[in-house]
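Annotated sample (chain length 65).
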Amino acid sequence: MPKLKTHRGAAKRFRKTAGGIKRRRAYRNHILTKKSSKQKRHLRVSSGHLVACDAKLVERMLEGS
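Output written by the structure step:
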């Protein structure tokens, strides 16, 4: 069986850590002038971990690396 390749899109979006798979928060990139201060403040917690069911899928995509 051939080697598995890393899913390049997933590799750019997720990082493996000891605690699980780390991800970035959405809606924090551009057009921030339209967003309220409250929304931006809540988005400031920039990263989180994936839930177990999604982490399993992402883990598989990152397997090749």
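Annotation: The first strand starts at residue 15 and ends at 17.
Annotation: Strands lie at 15-17, 20-24, 47-49.
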